[in-house]
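Researcher: Here's the sequence for the chain we discussed earlier.
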Amino acid sequence: MTARSALYVPGDAADKLAKALTRGADELIVDLEDAVPPSGKEAARATVASWLGGLAGPTAPRLWLRINPGEQGREDLRAVAAPGLAGVCVAKAEDPADLAALDALLTRLEAERGITVPLRLIPLLESGEALFRARELARAPRVVRLQLGEADLAADLGVTPSPDGRELLWARSQTVAASAAAKIEPPIAPVSTDFRDPDALRESTRALRRLGFWGRACIHPAQIPVVHEVFTPTEEETARAEDVLARYEEALAAGSGVCLDARGRLIDEAVVRSARRLLS
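Model: Thanks. This is the structure I predict for it:
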């Protein structure tokens, strides 16, 4: 199931890791990349490995590990991969061959460490190259979802995003379309760095939901309630979707592939797919 929220937690902050499971997020992304300075990578790996070792199996929220690019990322996995992780967020992913190499490494680590549930991959698209290869990355082994890293992406593209993010509209839509083409989960939306303005967060999150994102990454626990509000279907939305499915099933039983909803609008298979996605 696609998460409504994924909270980033610095891997070098033992106190934040200790509190992370109680913050209310659907998922946690334990960060060994940007949140950790180069001089602190080794200590952060030890901190995260110790924390994971103290957990009793799979948890709610689900746990993801954001690893560094290249060889540092492989070192992250060799130090930290353990039962209880849902998978790995791959920072600055650009080459599907790198994801295939991670697949091979994870296969070995799973066998060696008794990891019975295969670890999944989420490539982070953070460059122009990544955007143009989004479809290939989405089809790589173990990939279940894409995610945008818009700060690095904006720097790579040389754009200055405005409050409504229109400069990144193509990148966002490309990520949604590549996910649909690969038939993987819809992407979760990129973070907002302003956690002091819930109204602005609500407005931007609603816009991202309309674009096809089904969840949002968060950098602060204060963002979680707003994100959940936007990505939790209302009772009215749920009832309308259930009514659509009921009417469509009745139409099929009567030998028709189309019917009308309660407001007189056409229901066909495309409308039904949207209703099923919302209810899921």
